[in-house]
Design goal:
Length: 432
C-alpha cells in the first residue's frame, strides 16, 4: 500500500479526535509500543517504546535510545478539525422535521458543509459494572444533511451570504417521529440505552480521499488539516531509530479552538510526559531542564498554498505551492515559532535527507492564523520550528493538497528522528 493510500485509510478512520487517537494507538500497538497510564508510576527502560493518552483525544508516544539521552526530538500535530458539535440536548422539531441543534467548532467554511451526506461520531460515557467508561462511537451508516435554501427563495444567494449557525446550519435528522438519538448511540457503543450517561458528538464528512488533477498530482480529502501532518510525523517516528535522543510524537487536541484545554497544546500534557521521562530515567529536575535545552520540536500544521483565483491574498515575494516540499512558516509577531536557529536546523536536516523545503509567510496586509507551537513552548521552552504541507481550501469540508508532499513530510520526519542532535551552547548545535 502506498503512503497516500495509507493516509486515505487513516483519514477515513479518524472521523473524530477520539477516533484519530484510536487510529494512532493501533499503529503504535502494532509497532511494539507499550501503553502507559498517567495515573500510574512509570517504569521505563533504555531502548523501550511507550505511549500515553489523555482524554482519549490526545496522545504522546516516545522511543528511548539504548544509551543515555541528551534531549528530545519532538513532533507535535493536532487531532481536531473544524466542524459542528451537537449540543447536549440536540433533537428538536420544526415544520414537520426532526432537526439537530449544533454549534460551530472552530473556523469552518460553512458553505462547504451544505447539501452533502454527513456522519455523526465522537464518544459516549456509559455506565457499566459500577463504573463510567468512555467509548468512541461512529453512528455509521446514519447520515444527516444541512439543506441549502433553493435559489428561487433567495435570489441573492450567489451574491455573497453570511451564515447563521442556529438556523442556516441546522442538520436535518429525520421525520417528525424520528427515533431518539440515544438508541443509535447505545447500539454503536454496544450497550443498552439506559447505560448511556453523556456524549460528545460531532459531524464529519464521510467522503473518502481521492486523487485529482491531470496526473493525479493533488489530493482531495476531509480533515487534511491537520491529520495529514499527524500521519506524516507518525510515519517518521515508526520508521526511525533513536540516535542519542528520545524520539517523541505528540498529537494534541483543541487546536482549532485555542488549545486551552487539559488535552491541548497550552496544557501540561506534553511537558508532563517529557518531565516524567527524565524523572523515570533518574535525571531529576535539573536534568529535565538540561534535556529541554538540548531538544528540538517540529510543530507540524498545514500551510496555505497560493490560490490560483486569489494570488493577491498571498505574499507576492514568497509564494508557497503544493508539491514543492515541506513548508517552513515564519511570522514577525510570533504566530509561528520559527527563528534563525530552528530554521537552520530543519533546513540542514532536510538537505541531508534530500527533502525539498519552502517558506510560508503571510501577506503583510492579510491577517493569518496561528498554530500550536507557540503555545506548547509556554509549557516547555524548546527550540521549535513551525512546518506543514501546502494546501488549498483550509477549513473546508473537503480540502486539497499535493500528492508529492506526503512523502516529503514522511521522509523529513524520519530523517529528523534519525538525527543525532546536540546543543553545544546557546545558539550552537551539532548535527550528527
Amino acid at each position: 500500500m502506498s503512503r497516500i493510500d495509507e493516509l486515505f485509510a487513516f483519514l477515513a478512520r479518524s472521523v473524530s479526535p477520539f477516533h484519530a487517537v484510536d487510529a494512532v494507538c493501533a499503529k503504535l500497538d502494532a509497532a511494539g509500543y507499550l501503553r502507559l497510564q498517567e495515573k500510574d508510576a512509570w517504569d521505563i527502560r533504555p531502548g523501550g517504546k511507550y505511549y500515553v493518552t489523555r482524554n482519549g483525544s490526545a496522545v504522546a508516544a516516545f522511543a528511548l535510545p539504548e544509551e543515555p539521552f541528551a534531549g528530545f526530538l519532538i513532533t507535535a500535530s493536532h487531532s481536531d478539525s473544524p466542524t459542528f458539535k451537537l449540543k447536549p440536548v440536540s433533537q428538536w422539531k420544526n415544520a414537520g422535521y426532526t432537526m439537530l441543534d449544533v454549534e460551530g467548532y472552530g473556523g469552518m467554511l460553512c458553505s462547504t458543509w451544505l447539501d452533502r451526506p454527513l456522519g455523526i461520531a465522537g464518544r459516549v460515557m456509559v455506565e457499566e459494572e459500577g463504573s463510567l467508561r468512555s467509548r468512541a462511537v461512529c453512528l455509521d451508516p446514519l447520515r444527516v444533511v444541512i439543506p441549502n435554501l433553493a435559489i428561487h427563495m433567495d435570489r441573492t444567494a450567489n451574491d455573497g451570504k453570511s451564515w447563521k449557525m442556529q438556523t442556516d446550519m441546522a442538520p436535518l435528522y429525520g421525520g417528525p417521529d424520528a427515533a431518539d438519538l440515544t438508541g443509535a448511540l447505545a447500539k454503536a457503543a454496544g450497550v443498552q440505552p439506559e447505560q448511556v450517561v453523556s456524549s460528545e458528538l460531532y459531524l464529519y464528512n464521510p467522503q473518502p480521499g481521492q486523487r485529482v488533477g491531470a496526473e493525479g498530482e493533488y489530493l482531495c480529502a476531509p480533515r487534511l488539516d491537520d491529520l495529514e501532518c499527524a500521519f506524516g510525523t507518525l510515519t517518521g517516528l515508526l520508521e526511525a531509530r533513536p540516535q542519542g535522543n528520545v524520539n517523541v510524537f505528540a498529537m494534541l487536541d483543541n487546536e482549532e479552538v485555542g488549545s486551552g484545554t487539559k488535552q491541548g497544546a497550552d496544557s501540561n500534557f506534553l511537558a508532563g510526559v517529557l518531565e516524567r521521562v527524565c524523572l523515570a530515567a533518574g535525571r531529576g529536575r535539573d536534568g529535565y531542564f538540561a534535556a529541554l535545552a538540548s531538544s528540538m520540536m517540529l510543530s507540524a500544521d498545514n500551510a496555505h498554498a497560493v490560490h490560483p483565483g486569489y494570488p493577491g491574498k498571498s505574499d507576492p515575494v514568497t509564494v508557497t505551492r503544493m508539491n514543492e516540499g515541506v513548508v517552513i512558516k515564519a511570522h514577525a509577531g510570533q504566530k509561528y515559532t520559527t527563528d534563525a536557529v530552528s530554521a537552520a536546523l530543519v533546513r540542514s536536516i532536510a538537505k541531508r535527507a534530500g527533502v525539498p523545503v519552502q517558506w510560508f509567510v503571510n501577506h503583510s496586509d492579510v491577517r493569518g492564523g496561528s498554530t500550536l507551537g507557540n503555545l506548547s513552548t509556554t509549557q516547555a521552552a524548546i527550540n521549535t520550528v513551525d512546518i506543514g504541507l501546502a494546501q488549498l481550501a483550509m477549513h473546508s469540508c473537503m480540502e486539497t493538497a499535493g500528492a508529492k508532499d506526503v512523502d516529503a513530510l514522511c521522509e523529513l520526519s524520519r530523517a529528523f528522528y534519525s538525527t543525532r542532535l546536540r546543543c553545544e551552547g546557546d545558539g550552537s548545535w551539532k548535527i550528527g
